[in-house]
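Notes on consecutive records. When two proteins share a document, each keeps its own sequence and its own token line. Never mix them. Below: protein one.
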Amino acid sequence: MTPPQKLNAAPPVAPGHNVKRGAAVARPQTAEERRRAQRVLLKMPVIIHIPGKANPLHGFTHTVSASGAMVVLPEGIPMGTKLSIENPKTQKKVEAHVVRPPQLNADGSLVPVEFTTPSPQFWNIFFPPNASN
């Protein structure tokens, strides 16, 4: 005779993906819920400095967070490239790297960058606390 099976058992979840548990339903977290830092839509000019490249790239942000940004540039930058981002309004610079391959959109190349060290003050905006924290 086979042992009885548990009803309402949670489905398996990929390693590293936390599960939000409600009263009777378990579901994988959405990408938004898994983010380390809240993203804010903000279009502002940036200057990208790449070591060894004579001329910086001028672009603008699509979204920003305390740990990086999605930057729109006239050309893509390969994943893993180390660079510095300059905020031309404050003239502050922060070290970063490209975390994924760029994607093309109507405005140019979307380049996801992550700061070497979280720098929430770099964008000169206030980030509201995460709802999940």
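Protein two starts on the next line and is unrelated to protein one.
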Amino acid sequence: MWMWTWRGPPVAGSAGRSRDVSVYGPGPASAPRRRRPENGGDTGLMKLSRPVSWFLLAFGVWSWFIWITFVKNLWKDGSGLAFDDAGDPTTYFWVHLLLAVTSFLLGTAVGVIGLRGVRALRRERSRG
């Protein structure tokens, strides 16, 4: 087990002592960071811009439309790729159904993030 450390800045109220700071490696697990947004910490709330929020929301809507349409077309496939001669689903069908469902779920998650961003911007604007 190895860990690369460097001597960090002095610890407040420690009379000039430094603390070891882990940079990389499978060292011992560290405790979760405390929330300190007043000190410029990186665990504060994130704010999406208006264009990004609308883009994410549009992507989510597009994902619903595209992937539901894709699954409908896959289900009606008459070319023999999705279903064999006996009418049983093929590997092609299962792989593409899995891809469609995964993409649908990811698109939904992205759309929800966009919707939350748009709603937060509207609340902020109404507060003035």
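For the record: Helices lie at 50-75, 91-127.
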